[in-house]
Amino acid sequence: MTKKMRIWVTVSFCLFILTSLAVGQQEQWLQYTVANEAWQILGDMGAATPRLSSDKPQGVELPEFKGNEPLFARWNTPMIGSGGLWIALDRTKKDGRYDSVYVDSDADNSLADESAYQMYRQEQRETDFGPIKVVFPGEDGPITYHLNIQLYDYQGSRSVYIRPAGWYEGAVTVAGEQKHCTLIDQNVNGTFNDKSLDASSADRIRIGKKDSRDTRFVGNYIEVDGVLYTTEIARDGAYIKLAKAEDVTFGTVHLPEVITEFAAGGENGLFIVKPKEGAAKLPVGKYRIDHWRIERKDDKGSNWAVQGRYFPGDSGLLTVAADSQLELPSLGEPIISTLQVELREPGYYFSQNLQGRLGEQIELTREGARPQPPKLRIKSKDAKYDRSFTFEYG
What we know:
Elements: H1 2-24, E1 28-29, E2 31-34, H2 38-42, E3 71-76, E4 84-90, E5 100-103, E6 117-118, E7 121-122, E8 126-136, E9 143-154, E10 157-164, E11 166-174, E12 177-184, E13 204-208, E14 216-217, E15 221-224, E16 227-233, E17 239-244, E18 250-254, E19 261-266, E20 269-273, E21 279-283, E22 285-297, E23 303-309, E24 317-320, E25 325-327, E26 336-344, E27 347-355, E28 361-366, E29 375-379, E30 386-390
Parallel strand pairs: 18-25
Antiparallel strand pairs: 1-17, 2-11, 3-4, 4-5, 5-6, 7-8, 8-9, 9-10, 11-12, 12-13, 13-14, 15-16, 16-17, 18-21, 19-20, 19-22, 22-23, 22-24, 23-28, 26-27, 29-30
């Protein structure tokens, strides 16, 4: 009797493990949300900037335009076979400002069967349209997506910015706890699962509190409450799968010990690490440094922080190999302050800038805000001219 009981308990335990693993990899469905000012709700969102032209696109059926010189742009998306949709900007008055837009919303390479969207806001330099519904063909039926379009038009200079008007969000279960998940099409191509070594080409994911701004790159992994998970995200953003990452190989990145935070991103995702004794561990792979940060207090107890980001060219690239000991001694202090002087009649123009040793941009804050800008003192050799000026931001 005792032996039978032991066998039953063992089988039940195995079934429990298998069931737990299956639940961890189940599809967790999210809700699609739309707003014409999505960036105000979500914060940072990317923008596509296709080339504007007055040349009519070849092979595209066009509507009867009301104004002179309509403008055309092609929005690239892998969600349709042709690789892109055409957009046309028109004017309701013959020679007025551009205030209406046509979008090939059904991806049939025709604008003639579309109705014009009217602008919802127009200011001196900008005209805004949206949300504009687009329908992609899908294996399980049509997929809905929305765009916001902004035309910048000032003194003959025109450009168009296309941003996502829709995103996915909802409750997901992670390690038995309910979290809020948000997916953002950061590179604005109609998909939500893009991974990339370049930050601008990777989509974004948030898992945490509903109002959290802890945004990570969509990648192979995401860290939640200190635990690493593998991710699988639907191409259209409708669901996410999470499973605890197993058998992950790490390498070590060595940094100056004064660095209190180090972040690097790539196809593995974005990792924000608090180094211990100058060491940070990352899963093996290729990364681009997102930022480094140093925090300390002055003699009055005020919190100061200096952060370096936006590394030029390939200066921020690094490869983490299995059990590697990668050294990055050029991060952190000293900070390089430069002063540029340019003659602009009838005077001189001075510009002060902070850079890291690899050319990265430096941001300096005190108690979370910019400190007062530095001063510039100009003194002539004979001391007859001696005056101090204060720099201004912007």
